[in-house]
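Hi everyone, sorry if this is the wrong subforum. Our group has a chain we'd like a structural model of before ordering constructs, and none of us has done structure prediction before. Sequence below.
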Amino acid sequence: MTLSESVAILGLGTMGSGMAANLLKAGVSLTVYNRTPAKAQALVSTGARFAATPAAAAKDTSIVIGMLADDTASRAVWTGKDGVLNTVRPGTVLIESSTASPAWIEELAGLAAQHGTELLDAPVTGSRVQAATGQLTFLVGGSEAALQAATSVLKCMSKEIVHLGPTGSGAKMKLINNFLCGVQVASLAEGLAWVERSGLDTLKAVSILNAGAPASPLLGAVSERMINQNYAVNFLLTLMAKDMRYAQTEAANCNVNLTTAEVSLALFERAIANGYGDQDMASVIEPLRANK
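Answer:
Right subforum, don't worry. Here is the predicted structure as tokens:
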């Protein structure tokens, strides 16, 4: 199948590179942008075009997708000096798949409307493996019409597309999702450090946890990485800490105090301070092992 849409992807990190590869496999006419051009080389070698700026990437495309680290990076790509909104054509569908704050998504949607475009906030669940295999779930906020225009492209990268409501709905749901993931990862790190120091057989203990009530896909995957000290990035530790901060702010706007997020964030920040920020979030266990 070859799709007629022309697409730009902005951001080729752990997630964006996998998403872009799946669009190329589907025959999409793809332009890519990344702040570090070297990260685009593999995609260019398989058919993507590289643009030197976000504005150049968006100039002649019908759908523009952002997959950036945080609000600051997203703002620069969409609204900066060489940002998308400087060149985007009216009628283009803009998709922000970054894990961003709902406040920024609301602002960006307003700016997009001023340029005659619509914004879908469509963050994803899944990590590196799901991005590479086209098995992401898109959590979408925005109009039915914009989603319909983008559905064929989103399907190339996903197993499921969930329309949650108006713009901002996807961002809110993603923060709730990542808050719960972050708390579980932090609790697992403490629990596994306890197992290791207790004299129990670690593999047997983790097998019991993975077969019992605490079990989850996340616990299974992250416990294996913690045991093997395999911290190749599936989900960057610094990004999990960022997501927990965004979650705290958004929950506070709803008069909810995320006390477990506060404790979990302290563990993530401790690991970052010990030099694990650029590794997988599973590395949060290492300072607990070293008692630093």
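For your construct planning: The chain has a mean pLDDT of 97. The chain has two domains: 6-166, 172-290.
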